[in-house]
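Appendix B, record 7
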Amino acid sequence: MHRCEFTAAGPELARLANTGGRAPMRKVNIHEAKTTLSQLVEAAESGETVVLARAGKPVVQLVRLKKKRGIKLGGLKGKLPEQLLADIAKPLSKKDREQLFGGGVEP
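Structure tokens (predicted):
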């Protein structure tokens, strides 16, 4: 695999493009990308970085999205003070209920 050098499209894209083979990368002109978009998306899904160029200058990077992680239950376990948890678990007194709900809630 040969190394591509990009510098005209900005430092971030140039830094990503000039990684020296750390991740597979493909440079494609926008005109070609219009006709091969599904193949480029498949390449990105498989981990390849696809850089779209206009007149030979890189302008857009196509990469796969990170998979969404589900909800992690118990993420706060051990991070809250025990006294706070104990206070939350206590039932409200009649006075507290009246302050919070205006006396319209029966236990």
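Remarks on this record: Confidence is low (pLDDT under 50) at residues 1-12. The chain is about 35% helix and 15% strand.
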